[in-house]
Amino acid sequence: MANVIVIGAQWGDEGKGKITDLLSRSADVVVRSQGGVNAGHTIVVQGQTFKLHLIPSGILYPDTECIIGSGTVIDPKVLLEELAQLHRLEVSTDKLFISQTAHVTMPYHRLLDKASEEKRGKYKLGTTGRGIGPTYADKSERTGIRVLDLMNRDHLHEKLEWTINYKNGILEKLYNLEPLDPQAVIKEYLDYAEQLRPHVVDSSLKIYESIKKRKNILFEGAQGTLLDLDHGTYPYVTSSNPIAGGACVGSGVGPTVIDRVIGVAKAYTTRVGEGPFPTELKGEVGQLLGDRGAEFGTTTGRARRCGWFDAVIGRYAVRINGLDCLAITKLDVLDELKEIKVCVAYELDGQPCHHFPSNASEFARCRPIYEAFPGWQTSTSHCRTLEDLPKRALNYLKFLAELMDTPIAIVSLGASRDQTIIVEDPIHGPKRALLDANGEPVSSTNN
Ligand code: GDP
Ligand code: IMO
Ligand code: MG
After folding, report:
1. pLDDT tens digits for 300-354?
2. Which of 71, 169, 193, 395 is most buried, with most CB under 10 Å away?
């Protein structure tokens, strides 16, 4: 048995949804610990596409419990839409549980997120506009509304009448916006509360009971390491902690229950929103990666910025998350390229720099130092074992494992569940991986 954290090792959208769905076949419980409906996780099963924002990516397995933990922020309206989408597709949501201590994204959070972005002008952060920053700000300021507040009519009236009047002052005076009608908002949210009530639980206790029964628990990350509020590219980050440590805080489990941490990284890099991106490709190759990788945001539809794989960031993700192994996704997107580059280090003010600089202005001045490889220029999307891969593709993976001094456990070659090479099952398998720490491939015959 193993309890496993899956995190994004780059700027989000690494394919965490696909990897979590894949690993969920061996999980009893899947937990989302942080973030809100800024996340967009895509799962493709037998040609059918599921887009999830808050519901854990284990939901397609009828016997798997899915828990939205206390460190998340919940937009009830979007969550109910997501539930309706799953019901239309005949997916059962009976085993979905929502933490009563998670904070709730309210209409004023969405309005304030968009209004403050507009006011920032050229200093905007490029948020998803889903009210995430303002919801977490209220949580820190201790004026937030929690799921348990929604469940108590009198309590909600009392809290929201005061809060909405306070927020209306900001909406009207600072942003020149129409005020919200407190009674209309209360009515709307009480209605949401009744629909969600059957799912609401003490999530930390529920997870603890599963731990006691030695169940397999999968913690599904949202966003990515470089979007972490404390360790990412501040201020161009989200307002929660997507790193591995955040999974413990956000689900209410101690670090001693975690057996393994898997970092998901694309075979190249993408970023949505503003902020520095050393390996960004603005020309033809960036366009090709965007087209072949269908790099448009699952949540906002915005085009993702594309660039070469950045091993400085990869090493940083290994350090910050204590990664045991990697899942490399979207290798197939590189199939047509004549030449593939990898950033092995930066040049900072004329000096080589091998470590991710925690000083934001230094990071903005970093220029990539590349190593180039000949591309394999043949399709990999049908490959199911290491032996099926073209030698140059295998060498590319080997190089990444060496650069990050971390084994690769999973390689993804397409959006579908089956377009995957799993050499080691990180839940059941021994601590052995596709490529060892020296980058040497190991046999894949025991899948
Ligand atoms: P997440 O936020 O980390 O779950 O990632 P997203 O779902 O936002 O974005 C990843 C996108 O890539 C989705 O459209 C996936 O269906 C797709 N995808 C995942 N793995 C692969 C892969 O190996 N190859 C290709 N071509 N697409 C993939
Ligand atoms: P998943 O889970 C990619 C980015 C936004 C913006 C910054 C702050 O699908 O990987 P926010 O709305 O959170 O205040 O925006 O964070 N961002 C993501 N980028 N994937 C995500 O989630 C993201 N969630 C937030 O684009 O740059
Ligand atoms: Mg996404």
Report:
1. 888 999 999 999 999 999 999 999 999 999 999 999 999 999 999 999 999 999 9
2. 71
